């Protein structure tokens, strides 16, 4: 029975991926290339050798090489199509096949991000929660905004999803933590090769693991120190530009972490605080029976990781505000610089409500929570539909 269920989930995951991939390729084919995609193509892929890319000798503010290496391999592999990528200098010249080739990797990575969330939660929790997680993922603004963009952001989101899933798996299954640790090492190194700012989430992960589970400092040489050295290497070599905010800094954060998802995080924090106050006062014991279970542990551990990651990116915002040039020259601070917060928001909408529902026997509380979350999800889906329609 379990084997059949796992097979069914795997088949459904494959179908979901094919549907997303097909839809993404259709969007990639029809949407014109834009300035940043063309710049990366010319400056960081076509006119660079593999060695130059690996060495960080490209004129990108984020010169970490993984995405550009993938793009160069894809373009070189598609040489038989006789597409003159070197002379693509505007969106008007790029034909449909050129757009597909340039955007195939972000479409794959973003599609995998949603499917992996479904697969994990369907297997570890239930099929309903898996489907719910899939809806949460595809209702996210940043999913649609950067699904087909030939830039590193879909890859960054994909690796962040893997990092979060492996973290939950690590917390849930104490017997297989050594295996999960190896996955952490691989993912953290790939993140460091994708974006220097991934140092923030890698630090958050290492700190939570050290504080809650693994005290041996030697275990962190490969998991954190090596990725940090990689991030530092590429940051030092990267060209330094000025950045300024077009509007409020809140807008760039809320594009990744919208108000409804912040509300869920705050609701969970308040619930936990109330629970511990009641426990301290020896009140309401029977109202929260079974709170100390694996779902509660997963949610609390992920809360620590979430708050540390959010705090890290807020500190980065504070830094940008401090050094922001008065004359507003350079580049506008983009919401895509905060892509991991999109994943934090998605996971928060899944982990925290599910933990509360499974950790209490109070039926009224469960109904109220389900209705509240349902309204928030419906609101986000409508917003997502409006974005696609536009």
Please characterize this protein's 3D structure.
The radius of gyration is 22 Å and the shape is globular. The protein has helices spanning 2-30, 35-46, 50-54, 66-77, 96-124, 127-138, 141-145, 153-172, 177-192, 198-212, 220-237, 249-254, 259-280, 294-323, 339-358, 363-389; strands spanning 243-244, 331-332. By secondary structure, it is mainly alpha-helical. It has 16 helices and 2 strands. It has one domain. The chain starts with a helix and ends with a helix. Strands 1-2 form a two-stranded parallel ribbon. Helix 8 runs antiparallel to helix 14 (294-323), helix 8 (153-172) runs parallel beside helix 15 and helix 15 packs antiparallel against helix 16. Helix content is 71%, strand content 1%.
What's this, in brief?
The chain is built from 16 helices and two strands. It has 390 residues and is mainly alpha-helical. Helix 1 packs antiparallel against helix 5 (96-124), helix 5 packs antiparallel against helix 6 (127-138) and helix 8 (153-172) packs antiparallel against helix 9.
How much helix, percentage-wise, in residues? over 70%
Provide the spatial order of strands within the biggest beta sheet.
Answer: 1-2
> What is the count of structural domains?
1
- Arithmetic mean pLDDT: 88
Order of helices and strands: HHHHHHHHHHHEHHHEHH
């Amino acid at each position: 029975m379990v084997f059949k269920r796992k097979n069914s989930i795997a088949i459904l995951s494959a179908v979901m991926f094919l549907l997303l991939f097909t839809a993404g390729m259709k969007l990639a084919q029809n949407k014109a290339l834009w300035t940043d995609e063309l710049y990366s193509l010319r400056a960081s892929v076509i006119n660079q050798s593999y060695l130059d890319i690996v060495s960080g000798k490209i004129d990108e503010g984020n010169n970490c090489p993984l995405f550009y290496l993938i793009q160069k391999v894809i373009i070189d592999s598609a040489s038989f199509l006789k597409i003159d990528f070197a002379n693509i200098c505007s969106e008007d010249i790029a034909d449909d096949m050129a757009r597909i080739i340039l955007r195939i990797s972000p479409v794959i990575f973003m599609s995998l991000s949603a499917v992996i969330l479904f697969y994990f939660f369907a297997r570890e929790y239930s099929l309903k929660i898996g489907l719910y997680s899939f809806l949460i993922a595809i209702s996210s603004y940043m999913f649609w905004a950067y699904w087909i963009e030939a830039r590193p952001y879909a890859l960054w989101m994909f690796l962040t999803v893997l990092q979060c899933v492996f973290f939950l798996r690590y917390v849930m299954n104490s017997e297989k933590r050594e295996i999960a640790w190896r996955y952490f090492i691989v993912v953290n190194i790939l993140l460091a090769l994708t974006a220097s700012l991934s140092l923030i989430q890698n630090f958050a992960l290492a700190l939570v693991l050290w504080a809650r589970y693994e005290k041996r400092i030697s275990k962190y040489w490969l998991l954190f120190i090596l990725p940090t050295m990689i991030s530092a290497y590429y940051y030092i070599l990267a060209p330094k530009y000025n950045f300024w905010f077009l509007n409020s800094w809140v807008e760039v954060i809320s594009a990744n972490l919208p108000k409804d998802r912040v509300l869920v995080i705050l609701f969970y924090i308040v619930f936990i605080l109330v629970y511990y106050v009641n426990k301290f006062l020896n009140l309401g014991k029977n109202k929260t029976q079974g709170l100390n279970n694996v779902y509660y542990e997963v949610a609390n551990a992920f809360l620590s990781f979430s708050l540390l990651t959010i705090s890290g990116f807020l500190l980065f915002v504070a830094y940008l505000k401090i050094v922001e040039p008065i004359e507003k020259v350079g580049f506008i601070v983009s919401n895509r610089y905060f892509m991991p917060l999109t994943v934090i928001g998605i996971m928060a909408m899944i982990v925290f409500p599910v933990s509360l529902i499974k950790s209490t026997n109070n039926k009224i509380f469960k109904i109220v929570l389900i209705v509240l979350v349902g309204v928030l999800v419906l609101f986000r889906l409508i917003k997502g539909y409006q974005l696609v329609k536009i």
